[in-house]
Design a protein that fits this description.
alpha+beta, 66% helix
Length: 113
Amino acid sequence: MGKQMTEMLKGTLEGIVLALLAEQPAYGYDITARLREHGFTDIAEGTVYALLVRIEQKKLVDVEKVPSEKGPPRKVYTLNAQGTHELAEFWKTWNFLAQHIEELNPRTTNEEN
């Protein structure tokens, strides 16, 4: 993954993870696997776990420890009301940026003319 992609992901990964949790609760490894299914193949598990700690500290998720067949209990993350609000703000911001960036793209601007 290129440096530009890495930098853009840093600013959007929290919103992406919140969107995944809006679909269904999940634990860390499951979130990483779902990210990879959506094409985010170069995101390290450590990055996801660090992000989960941050969103837990920001109280955007509820956490439940669920017994695991192998090893210690898993932390299952569920989007809560504050996280749902944060996700709505993310999409509002994303849509604003996407629209205005697209307007700057000469490739798409020229196709319209």
